[in-house]
Design a protein that fits this description.
The chain is mainly α. The chain folds into two domains: 189 residues, no CATH class; 87 residues. It has 15 helices and two strands. Strands 1-2 form a two-stranded antiparallel sheet. Helix 3 packs across helix 5. The radius of gyration is 27 Å and the shape is globular. It starts with 6 loop residues before the first helix and ends with a helix.
């Protein structure tokens, strides 16, 4: 399985995924409804760009779903759909027939990448391929070769769009990398086995009907495998939903328990006066936050900051926001307890101070430092 599970193929699958994220950023930049969430795509693009020499087991799974946590969760099929449905105002400045080709190439690439990962997992877990092991090897060599071919078809299209968007190319350090002909030679040799003539040792009564039955059997097996993967993904999604429901149920129970407890102490509450009652209600609202909930609360504030600042300042973009998603992620990893600690984060200094020259920084700080401190103080 060296022709499948190797750095060359793993990197190429990862590289094309980066191109997909880059084009999504270009598409969505012109979509006003998505403008405040552009750094969602930027965050994924930066994350995958920093991963070099990755195994196919990681890069191929990105094409199913890039998942870091519940707030950073991008499905490959949705990224492709964004390109397919991009409007005329999109900055994908290529001819219509080339634009159409983009989504088809990416869709085919996605299917092949997921298929190769399945083959890799099958071989790594030493699942028997029966008497057709040679066929298994050569067929997936052909799939790998097609992966490289699609990369070479996509490369010029992505490059043409990139040339029209030099600022984004610089920001993300985009490069178009494909395999050389010498690197592809072994795949061409292995894939030729698929086209070899039928062995003369076949029975004399072998017919085209037998061949058709064999092909039908292979197709059925592939369909069964696909059905199994769909069921697995459905079950995983079901588990996520159940976990979310349980978490929400527990939060409701906690709130109701607190309310019931408060209602059972009317005398004490009355003697404390209105101020104490107000403090009690505030305490109820300000429940402790774990890191996942902290991430969500900061994302909500991020959107509020973006909406307010864009209405006040011409030229305010998502990367000017002091709560960009990459900064929020760094806050949660570092466990910051107040905004002063946030300002000391390397990502904040690089993105806000150096990268943006502090654009609208004072205004954001005056308006939202207190809100940020209030949220961060609730971290468990």
């Amino acid at each position: 399985m060296n022709h499948i599970n190797n750095p060359l193929l793993g990197r190429q699958i990862g590289e094309v995924y980066k191109w997909l994220c880059f084009l999504n950023y270009i598409c969505l930049k012109s979509d006003k409804s998505f403008a405040n969430r552009l750094d969602d795509i930027q965050y994924v693009l930066e994350a995958v760009s920093s991963n070099k020499d990755r195994d196919i087991s990681e890069t191929a799974v990105w094409w199913e779903r890039y998942y870091e946590n519940e707030d950073c969760n991008e499905f490959g099929v949705n990224l492709i759909k964004n390109i397919r449905k991009a409007g005329r105002e999109s900055r994908l400045s290529i001819a219509a027939h080339k634009w159409k080709s983009l989504s088809f190439y990416f869709a085919e690439f996605r299917g092949l990448a997921i298929s190769l990962r399945s083959a890799r997992d099958s071989a790594e877990h030493q699942v028997s391929q029966g008497e057709n092991e040679d066929l298994f090897m050569s067929l997936y060599a052909a799939v790998a070769l097609r992966i490289f071919e699609i990369s070479k078809l996509l490369g010029p299209l992505v490059e043409e769009i990139a040339l029209s968007n030099p600022d984004e190319v610089t920001r993300f350090g985009l490069r178009i990398v494909t395999a050389s002909e010498s690197e592809l030679q072994k795949y061409k040799e292995l894939s030729q086995l698929v086209l070899a003539p039928v062995s003369p040792s076949l029975p004399s009564n072998y017919t085209r009907e037998d061949s058709s039955e064999s092909s039908a059997s292979i197709i059925t097996d592939l369909l069964d495998e696909s059905e199994g993967r769909i069921l697995e993904q459905f079950e995983a999604l079901r588990e996520e939903i159940l976990v979310g429901v349980d978490r929400s149920r527990q939060e409701i129970i906690d709130v109701m328990t607190h309310l019931t407890s408060s209602q059972q102490k009317p005398a004490s509450r009355a003697s404390d006066g209105d101020g104490k009652l107000h403090d009690s209600l505030n305490t109820l609202k300000e429940t402790p936050l774990n890191r996942d909930h902290l991430f969500s609360e900061l994302l909500k504030l991020r959107e509020k900051i973006y909406s307010t600042m864009t209405s006040k300042f011409d030229g305010f973009e998502h990367w000017h926001n002091i709560l960009q998603k990459p900064i929020i992620a760094e806050i949660c990893r570092s466990g910051c307890r107040n905004y002063d600690e946030v300002k000391e984060l390397p990502g904040f200094k690089t993105r806000i101070i150096q990268g943006n020259n502090g654009f609208a920084l004072n205004e954001q700080e005056q308006a939202y430092t207190q809100s940020i401190n209030k949220i961060l103080s609730r971290l468990q």
